Amino acid sequence: MARRATSHRVHRLTIVLDGTNPPVWRRVDVPSVTRLGGLHAIIQAVLGWNDEHLHTFEFGGRRYSDRGDDHPGFGPPDRDERGVRVGDVLRRPGSRGTYTYDLGDEWRHTVTVEDIDDAPPDAVYPRFLNGHGGCPPEDCGGAEGYEHLRHLRDHPDEIQDGPHGEAEEQRAWVGLLAPDDLDVGEIRDGLRTAVGTLPLDEPGDAVPRADPARPVTLPPEDELARTALDAPLLRGAVRLARWTAPRRRLTGTGVPRPGEARAAIEELDLWPVASEAESAERAEALGCARTAKDLPDFLAPWEAAVELGLVEVGSTTARPTGAADGLETDPGRVLELWTDLFDAAVDGPPVPGGYHRTGIDGSDVLPPTLRSLYEAPDGAGFPLGGLARALVPPADGPGALDARDAEMWRGLMTEILYTTVHGLAAIGAVRLTDRTPPPLAALYRPGHVRSRVPDRDEVESAHAAGTIDCSIALTPLGRYGTRELLLGMGIPAPLSGSLAAVGADELLDALAALPREYHAAEITPWAAHRTPEEAVREIAEAAAAPTGHGAARRALGAMVLNSLGERTAPALRALLGSQRRTVAGLAASALLSSDVLSREEGRRMFTEHGPWMVIDTVAGPMELGEYQVSTLFALNEEADGGSIGRMVLETADDLWRVDHPQAVPALETLGRLHPDRRVAKVARRAAHKARGRG
Hints:
Helices cover about 50% and strands about 10% of the residues. Helix 25 crosses helix 28. By secondary structure, it is of the alpha+beta class. The strands form 3 sheets. An 8-stranded mixed sheet has the order 5-4-3-6-7-1-2-8. Strands 9-11-10 form a 3-stranded antiparallel sheet. Strands 12-14-13 form a 3-stranded antiparallel sheet. It is built from 29 helices and 14 strands.
């Protein structure tokens, strides 16, 4: 059920040029990590455009281009297409958006996801698969002008002077038409020339790799599904889908008649939990509504039922698709539907009214807010004002604001959060504790915001009643949805105890990506599946490689074995005589950091293995970069050089003799980065001797 990360995934897209009949279309496979700027180049190549005009993308009511704030017009600025991936805006099969080329002729292309799958081995992307219809000539007047030219091509006898120009000019335009039967090889060659080969994962320096999320626990899937089915929005959508059977008549606006909608609200218990005053207000609205679109308590679950594919809407009637049948016994399907609602709530419509000019909405503020809630202890609640404050640029960072502007920004973020979290509450993802005065709360109700922007007097009167006072906590269902969101963004989000059955190599690599405070939660269940002897043997094998990830694994492996206590001591002692230096060194490191050795035994073991341990201790972090080495030294920085410094000074005479593949680079790194000057000097001298010996 977990959403797959974007890397190494491929989107199969169908691109249809709107207004053409028969349609001009193309089918392509593109890496899910392709930026929208790259998708623009792909569409230009496979359609055959010349990239002579401006273009925009639109997904979920948001516009993207390569112009940002520079485009003319009203509304929020376009978002930068270079910072958004195909997988960010087209998240599932059936998702769609538009690509518009030439803002004068307005060539609109509908981009639809046919499928999303893992990339097969050795495949090269992007790939043009097939299509039909030649590319229109540039500047021929849009879809209407193109269709007229296609008609004249098929009926040349109709070419004559008229409103479309002189006959000779029209013949010239017809002569520019490309054949409708495509030369697939030529298009593939053109795509390769224009775009080259796109990677299946993010380039190393494209997006900073996010820190892994804390390990969390989740209820069983069937329990999550029962909770999801009881959430107001999904429950209402399912009930409405079944209510439409066998068919329901629709008005010209595509919704049931108001009388039937009113009856459905009461019959299906679609009223959300509300205060007595809100109930009275909504009861009055129920009696006065002239169309179902005036009834938010009906319209929201109705739109959800249609978007989720539970209801099929025709020109005059609607009927159930059958997708709601048997949901109570299909937890996986329930969570798929719920995740769609969660994604839609996180994306959210652009916030209207006074916020519209900022270009900021729920899709900007909710992901970082959900991540903050996810990292907090399960069930912990936080005031929206505090969460909004975390969205204000820090006072000492880039984009810092002065105190007055920072407070204004915090207020704006609070209002946007307050508007958007109601959508999450409707699907059971968050629990709200709302003490906001009703007149002010009414301004941000989803139904109220949907219908109109409040006038100034109404806003001032509402704000005079008080301020937004609301706390929010993530529910287990919200934790599930946020984890899916993080995984889709490529952020590691482990489940607590999920490593219990994995091999030692996978355990050690996972621990390397987790903050130290989460290690015990993963080590304890892993060790519980093994005897002490098995744990020692598995870790020794996983960490035996002299180079590669071996040194980093040995550092973590010694920590794991030491945390298991004296039960591992007999097996570790047996490994001290191993012919593999790495295995014997790992055993010595684990034993020396434990309490099982006598002072005399510890001294003898350190004399024999100490120099190797010094080199290996530095070699592990070196595999992860010098920043990790500096961090290691900083953690050990004490007046006497720290534990590493003391080891270096105590083994100074033997360091240069250590038979370790990383001896010279480790000693050079020690000499360059260790903060204690005495330790650094000893390491540099040992490195010089080791180089001379080599």
